[in-house]
Amino acid sequence: MTALFALATCLLWGLADFGGGVLTRRIPALTVVVVSQSVAVVVLGAIVVVTRAWTEAGPLLWYAVAAGVVGPVAMLAFYKALALGPMGVVSPLASIGVVVPVGVGLVLGERPGLLQVTGIAVAVAGIVLAGGPELRGAPVRRRAIALTLVAAFGFGAVMALISEASTSLTGLFLALFVQRVTNVGVGGAALYVSVRRGAPALPEGGGVAVIRAALPALAFVGLADVAANGTYSIAAQNGPVTVAAVLASLYPVITAVAARGLLKERLRAVQAAGAGLALIGTVLLAAG
Predict the structure, then answer these.
(1) Which of 9, 50, 147, 211 could form a disulfide with 232 if both were Cys (CB 3.0 to 4.6 A apart)?
(2) Is residue 18 a contact partner of residue 258, using CB atoms and an 8 Å limit?
(3) Which UniProt keywords apply (predicted)?
C-alpha cells in the first residue's frame, strides 16, 4: 500500500508541477498559487462538511498550519526558479528536499533493509538524471539555484509535517483543508504586498479574462497538489517514511514525460537513463 500511494503522489506532483510551470509563463506566480489553492479550499471545505471532519479537530492540526505556511513559500520559490533557470536543472534539484522526510524517518528509528537502501540510492540517482541537467548549456543563475534549494527543503518540510497532521482519513481531510486555508492566507498576504510594491497581479494583455480562461488548469494544479499531499500522508502512515518519501520524489520523471508528450520537448539520453534508473529503484523499493 505504501508503494502504491507514494507512486500516486509522484504522478500527481509531477503533473501539478508541470501545469504550474506552464501557467507561470503567462500568469504571475503568486496569482497561480493563490487561485489554484483557493479552488482546493472550496473543494476540501465541501468534503469536510459532508464527512463531518471538523469533529476531529485537535493539536495535530498545528502541523497542518505549519505546512500551510511553508507550502506557499516553497511553491513560489519553485515557480520563480523555473522562470529563471532551465527546468532540466531546477526540477531535479527541487527533489533534493527528500532528505528532510527521509532524515525524519531515520531519526524516528526506521532502518531500511539492504535492498531498500540500494533502491533508494538508485532512485535518487534516477531523480537527478531524469531532470536532464543541461551540462553544456548556459550556467544557471545563482538566484535560480538559491530559490530551487529553498523550494526543495520547503517541499521536504511539507512532506514531513503533513504526514504528522492526522491519524485517520477524515482527520486527513480536515488537516488538508486547514493547510490550504493557511496557504491562501499566506499567499494572499504576499500577493497584496507584491501589488503594493508595483508588481502585477494579473497577466498583461488579458487581465481577468486570462485567469478565467485558465481556471480549469489552475483548478487542476491546486487539486492535484492537495491530492498528492493526501496520498503521501497515507503512504507515510502505512509504511516506512524513507520508502514513501523517495518514491514520491520521483515526480521529475513525470514532469519530463509530460513535457515530452504535451510540449513535444525531446527526452534527452540522460533523461531516459534517469527514468530507467528511477524505475529500477522503484522495483527494488517495492520488492524490499
Answers:
(1) 9
(2) yes
(3) Membrane, Transmembrane, Transmembrane helix
